[in-house]
Amino acid sequence: MGFEQYAKVKDNYCICYFGHNDEYLAQLVRVKPLIEAALPGIHIHLGCKDDKAHLLEGHSPLKLSEIKIRRKDYAYVREMKFNGRTHPIKDLLEECGIPVPNWLVSD
Asked: Which of 78, 73, 23, 84 is nearest to 52 (CA)?
């Protein structure tokens, strides 16, 4: 990506989840404001499978079928995956240095 294009999209990030757990999408909607507040100037967009886009209604989701076309609209597209051990949203928040809300997971 050239500098001019990067300058246009540098604040746009997309967090995607293409798995089967619809609850992760609902949780992403809830943590989106936390991430944006912790990282001023960053605009978080959410992505999902095409058949789950209704769960992100009002958040202009990046659909799986559109990734190749719209990828250039984002500085970074992060795909979250469940690794069988840890909670992917909790991992993301911790990686960003954002406190994990109590409602997200209980240990």
From this structure: 23
Tell me the per-residue pLDDT of 93-107, one tens digit each, with 9 for 90 and over: 999 999 999 888 754
Closest to 28 measured CA to CA, from 51, 5, 67, 55: 55
Cα(94)–Cα(37) distance, integer angstroms: 15
Distance between CA atoms of residues 1 and 71, nearest Å: 11
Q: For 43-58, how does the pLDDT look when each residue is reduced to its tens digit (9 = 90+)? A: 999 999 999 999 998 8
Q: How far apart are CA 95 and CA 92, in angstroms?
A: 5
Residue 6 has pLDDT above 80, yes or no: no
- pTM across the whole model: 0.87
The residue type found at 53 is A
Do the Cβ atoms of 18 and 79 come closer than 8 Å? yes
Name all domains of the chain by residue range, CATH numbers in brackets. 3-95 (3.40.50)
